[in-house]
Input
Amino acid sequence: MPLDPKIADRLKRDRDGLVPAVVQQHDTGEVLMLAWMDDEALHRTLTTGRATYWSRSRRAYWVKGETSGHAQWVRHVALDCDGDTILLKVEQVGAACHTGDRTCFDADVLSVP
Amino acid sequence: MPLDPKIADRLKRDRDGLVPAVVQQHDTGEVLMLAWMDDEALHRTLTTGRATYWSRSRRAYWVKGETSGHAQWVRHVALDCDGDTILLKVEQVGAACHTGDRTCFDADVLSVP
Output
């Protein structure tokens, strides 16, 4: 079973067939990370309830937390107005970032005037 | 003045020289939209405090709200652990989405099991 064609028709993929997915903790609103999905990763995410991405560096599907235990249980998925970005609201187990930080945006804050 | 070289050295751009920017309302945590920045857009954002993007369709810089009035005043900017995503926390004036919705993710919710 591939991705529901009614959803696939609305997706606008980049030239590699990917769409960025913004991942947010469902209750606190923390933005945890950004990852990439193709149709199959979105299909697996929607049907399993477990966040699944396409790793651009490893060129492989990646079930978040499969090796680290830091899974993301999906509570809510939406496409944006253009169909070119996905928002996932998840229950994050442990740290979202591979560095051990809660989010991937904790370490490198830039100053604003 | 270009982007601070200490920041530019940490940025990992796609093959078009762009980095995705996740835009979040600073107090409620709502994810408002995703847009794209090159070095100059990030430089303008950091030095003016006003969210400025690169429009891939129009191939032009785009100061959010310049025509609509729906500006984004920047409160916080961070890079992610890989330097390939930017998180902006902003004070959004009015609707973030060009459709008039508060966020670009309000209209197209997908069901999760």
Observations:
- The radius of gyration of chain A is 14 Å.
